[in-house]
Amino acid sequence: SRYPAHFGAAVTLHLADGAVLTAEMPDALGDPENPLSAERVADKAMALFAAAGLDEAQAAALRDAALALPGAADARTLYALLP
Fold it and tell me: What pTM does this model have?
């Protein structure tokens, strides 16, 4: 009912003993309302790169090039690292 203002989720578990457990996250992790730290963003990027098949050295080079973009003259270094 909060969509599209919020992109959260909720889950309800009905256990065999009759207990009901509910948890709700109104805003997804990484959304502006529930931001990740810069370190967690970099960790997430590394996990996604690994899932895409990049080895650790390729992933680290790509991450570092992306982090350098604010001070870079252009994006050529980043572009050259893309698989």
Answer: 0.61
